Amino acid sequence: MINSFLLIGLPYAALFIFLIGSILRIKYDGYSVTSHSSQFLESDMLFWGSRLFHLGIVMLFLGHLIGFLMPGIIISLTSSTSGLIMVEVTALAFGVLTFVGLVFLIIRRIIVKRLYSVTSKMDIVVYLVILFQVVTGLMVAYYNRWGSVWFASALVPYLRSIFIFAPDVSVISSMSLLVKLHAISAFVFVALIPFTRLMHFLVWPVFYLWRNYQLVIWNRDQKAMRASKNTREGVKPVNN
Questions:
Q1: Fewest C-beta in 10 Å: which of 120, 122, 152, 166?
Q2: What predicted TM-score, i.e. pTM, was given to this entire model?
């Protein structure tokens, strides 16, 4: 009963919330879809945390996506000992990068008080869910070795059964608690996307590829502005 709820009911609820919630938010509140950059409030820790986190999470996502869409490639790569070790070490390295970057970002939110004003409750929830996801992923890599092999042969059939509306939990239900928690937290993460700043990675300015060039013309005398001592108020020098 618990397996059916967490491994079947929760995934379908999460996917439904993600799909409908994303459409409604973009349609009715599209201007709120942003990452809400706080770089102007603090940039040094953001530089390292953001780069490490995004590099790690993007590569991990691509690895999971390839394993889901083309499991044969992963099975072929891991058919030899050297290939298996290479894939495992690479995945673990990106997992560690993700964890280190995320810790940087969390510490930044805690110690830089000026960020409190731009940190919402949902931001905190997102940090906690992602941290749980990353930590359980690292623990799975350590305690349930050779995940690249059993992911392609065991978890992929389960995930595909969800998407073709013929859920089969026979394999994953017999796996360790860590694997189940990692999978469950992934679906929770998906359900949170429409309600958080995570929406920003779904919106790409693809129309930039075919739009006309924009011509930007300055109407101020930049040289006079640099020499002016009146930097905060009053009328700025302009070209006439």
A1: 166
A2: 0.80
